[in-house]
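Allow me, if you will, to draw on your knowledge of protein folds for a short while. The matter concerns a single protein, recorded as an amino acid sequence and a row of backbone structure tokens. Kindly check, if you would, that the fold set down in the tokens agrees with what the sequence suggests. You will find the record immediately after this paragraph.
***
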Amino acid sequence: MSDGRIPAQRRRRKPTRSGVLLSEDVIVDCALRLVGQHGPDALSVRRLGAALGCDPSALYRYFHNTDDLLLALADRLIGDAQAGFDPTDMPWAEGLREMALRIHGCYRAHPRVAAMAAYRVTRRLNEFRAVDTGIGLLRRAGFDDATAVRYYAAFVDTVLGHAALDAAHLALPVERRAADDRAWTQEYARLPTATHPQLAVVRAQLPLMAGSSFETALDLLLAALVAAAPG
């Protein structure tokens, strides 16, 4: 198969010891839960086999290896983000905004998976559909084919980059995340004016640095795209 997945005829359909009927979706559901609870180390055939009540080797009938499974997890996030999304009747820039917010929100909902997978190319159906939709919106804006592809790459890299950054922050232990956020009101607030004059001027605004800059970056990017659009 062109996407690298195991052909259907090589899979067996019988319940595991715990009565679970294995399928790609069941395995992905389990992997999402385990990684969400225990982090990246949970993505192993041993852990999955124990959770599903099957011999770990049974998982190789559905996925070549754990990297193949990781790509399936990434594609699941893309699919969940795009569920019910139809920008046909939206202005193109509004469609891109909605697409971006959906992706970012879904990755924040699964921060440990997102931190592992945001930079991967899944080569699967949900990703194909998302790329087709995004490039279609930019072509609708009047950009020529090459420009639409280049601008889509910039758009989706911006979205996924912020999604991965925010997901990695959320995946930190609570105490480390809190310490990073407090830095803007504590360590930065104590810096002397003589050595850091610009920070002293904006000291009251520095807590803004603790939040995500995703929507600000998205606004700037969309404004640039609207200004550049031939229409």
Notes: The chain has a mean pLDDT of 92.
